[in-house]
Design a protein that fits this description.
Elements lengths: L2 H11 L4 E5 L5 H6 L7 E4 L3 H15 L3 E5 L1 H7 L1 H10 L3 E7 L15 H5 L6 E3 L6 H12 L6 E7 H5 L19 H13 L3 E5 L6 H12 L3 E4 L6 E3 L7 E2 L4 H7 L5 E5 L23 E6 L5 H11 L24 H11 L4 E6 L4 H8 L5 E4 L9 H11 L5 E6 H4 L5 H8 L3 E7 L4 H9 L7 H4 L11 H7 L3 E5 L2 H12 L5 E6 L1
Parallel strand pairs: 1-2, 1-3, 3-4, 4-6, 5-6, 7-8, 7-11, 8-10, 11-12, 13-14, 13-15, 15-16, 16-18, 17-18
Antiparallel strand pairs: 9-14
Length: about 525
């Protein structure tokens, strides 16, 4: 057994059984060791941003980490954006970052870099296994650290000689941490504050947006406490039979307008809401003036237990409101837009599906249509780094092979990680990809005005327009191995989406809006 064998054996022993990889020379021992551990599923990704985003999607759905295999500092650098999203989602991810042999580092070879410094900002744990006998123990430590709580990406640096040298190490089992319940004092303080408030609000994030927590939050809504979620939630059940809280609006002025008069905001699994960006003459903090704030459950604590204790202490009803099942009977007709697409998604989305939302300005239309669809899960863009929708779908489909996965993408966002289409085809994943093609970075057109920069002139427009030349999405998808269709009308989209939901395997729809 060498260090690479010890690493993979330890990962598998700790239920890390998927590896999203783009390896290089320094990782060849890890690659060779895969043949001896068939429990580990290797998934080749043609770009590291796909590998890291896929690990994020896997972790959100499996509630346990996948690993990535990345080639030194530049390989990690290529995957950084979606690790930023994973860190903001508090997703457990174990990054295995190959490095030069320990004795070779001193020569500053062309691919040499300061890997610990590169990985630190988006890793909650970083260590280098500089001897083969340390690999198994550090691998188990990495897995445990990825769970947090609240969890996040970790980075285990694996020098090439630590991978190829022999070791007698046995697999090490990680000690998984548990979430403590919020203190009785925190619950009592929240009860007193809510009873004394005229217009209290509870803001949920992270674990507090999962199914069991939402059941308890619905009880608070039934007791007269308005419930909100963060704008972008790692994983949230939606649809019929599910409590649907309000969502904190993306635009700060809209959020403050909705929250006018709120005199208490209680945080559960989240923190103070702030504007996504700073704007001239607009506030950064999205809390009304004079509003008291307090925390019921920190991100590291058990939000389900905290919400249940609060509901009981307030004497809330045993159950709260849920969404009805309401699906349009007839297909929409006419020119295609995001709202018509959302109606068709609602009509044909199967129960227990997974929506990976990177649709940017088109996402609102789909969310509106699917609010009362069959129950499903939604994975959102937690860190704002577009290009997550396709990789999240890869990871979700690997984690949940019996569930239909739908990837919703703006055309600009999809081009960041378009290589994911090839992986979907190669692995025959049950993913339907929808790309909303408006041939522009529409959100940037909106934001340019909001920042006070004015309307885009002819020079500025060159940095916002995607229509010269127009991307031929059908050709791109077919070239990467997927069946693909372009839809320019609502009727055509409805038919194409219905067909995709009725079959297994990858499919691609370009929605021209």
């Amino acid at each position: 057994m060498n260090g690479a064998d010890a690493l993979i054996s330890t990962l598998v022993a700790n239920e890390v059984t998927a590896c999203f990889a783009n390896p290089g020379t320094s990782e060849m021992q890890f690659v060779a060791a895969l043949d001896g551990v068939p429990q580990m599923r290797p998934v080749l990704c043609l770009f590291e941003g796909v590998a890291t985003g896929a690990a994020d999607g896997y972790g959100r759905m499996a509630d346990r980490p996948a690993c990535t295999l990345l080639h030194l500092g530049p390989g990690y650098g290529n995957g950084l954006a979606n690790l930023h999203n994973a860190r903001r989602a508090f997703t457990p991810v174990v990054n295995v970052v190959g490095d030069h042999a320990t004795y070779h580092r001193q020569y500053d070879a062309p691919l040499n870099s300061d890997i610990p410094t590169i990985v630190k900002p988006n890793s909650i744990w970083v260590k280098s296994a500089d001897a083969p006998d340390s690999v198994a123990g550090l691998a188990a430590e990495a897995v445990a650290a990825s769970y947090g709580p609240p969890g996040g990406p970790v980075s285990l640096i694996l020098p090439a000689d630590s991978a190829w040298l022999e070791t007698t190490s046995e697999p090490v089992i990680a000690q998984k941490p548990t979430r403590p319940a919020p203190s009785g004092q925190a619950v009592d303080a929240a009860v007193r504050a809510i009873k004394g408030a005229k217009k209290p609000v509870v803001l949920l994030g992270g674990q507090a947006c999962r199914a069991e927590a939402l059941k308890e939050a619905a009880r608070l809504e039934a007791a007269g406490v308005t419930v909100y979620t963060d704008t972008f939630v790692p994983r949230q059940p939606r649809g019929a039979g599910v409590f649907l809280p309000k969502k904190m609006p993306y635009f700060g002025e809209m959020a403050l307008g909705e929250l006018e008069g709120v005199d208490l905001m209680v945080f559960v699994g989240t923190a103070m809401p702030v504007a996504f960006f700073a704007y001239p003459d607009r506030p950064s903090v999205l809390i009304p003036e004079g509003c008291e704030t307090l925390t019921l459950a920190e991100r590291s604590e058990d939000s389900v237990a905290g919400l249940a204790a609060l509901a009981e202490a307030l004497g809330a009803p045993s159950a709260g409101p849920t969404q009805p099942l309401s699906i349009p009977d007839a297909a929409p007709s006419g020119g295609l837009n995001a709202y018509f697409a959302g109606a068709s998604v609602a009509r044909h989305l199967p129960e227990n599906a997974i929506l990976c939302d990177d649709a940017v300005t088109s996402g609102t239309g789909v969310a509106a249509g699917t609010a009362t669809a069959k129950p499903h899960d939604v994975l959102a863009l937690t860190g704002g780094a577009i290009g997550a929708g396709l990789p999240l779908a890869v990871g979700a489909a690997v984690a949940c092979p019996d569930r239909k996965v739908v990837s919703l993408n703006g055309d600009g966002a999809a081009m960041y990680t378009v290589q994911a289409l090839w992986t979907m085809a190669r692995e025959n994943l049950d993913v339907t990809v929808v790309v909303f093609a408006n041939h522009t970075y529409r959100i940037l057109n909106v934001e340019m005005t909001r920042t006070g920069a004015g309307q885009a002139g002819p020079q500025a427009a060159k940095l916002l327009d995607l229509g010269d030349p127009k991307i031929d999405w059908v050709s791109v998808a077919k070239g990467l191995g997927l069946s693909a269709v372009r839809c320019e009308t609502a009727e055509a989209f409805d038919q194409a989406f219905a067909a995709a939901m009725a079959q297994r395997g990858p499919a691609f729809i370009e929605a021209v809006i």
